[in-house]
Amino acid sequence: MRCIICKGNTIETKRTFIQEDENCIIIIKNVPAIVCSQCGEVYYKDEIAEKLEEIINRLQNMVKDVAIFEFDKVVDAA
Which among 6, 26, 67, 74 could bridge 39 via Cys, Cβ 3.0 to 4.6 Å? Predict the structure, then answer.
């Protein structure tokens, strides 16, 4: 896959995903991602993006400040 921003090469790695809401900040560590080695743009495969959306929707009502989770642990709990 080539980066759509700069056309650089991408690599599969893990990243930290941060969702900031007006009531909370949810941090999910070690999320599988595709990252441009040139500009750093981050992409998520469709199934990962869907899981992130499910996780965030589930946790937003439970978290009132800041919460940090490991991706593999919250996906298994879904």
Answer: 6
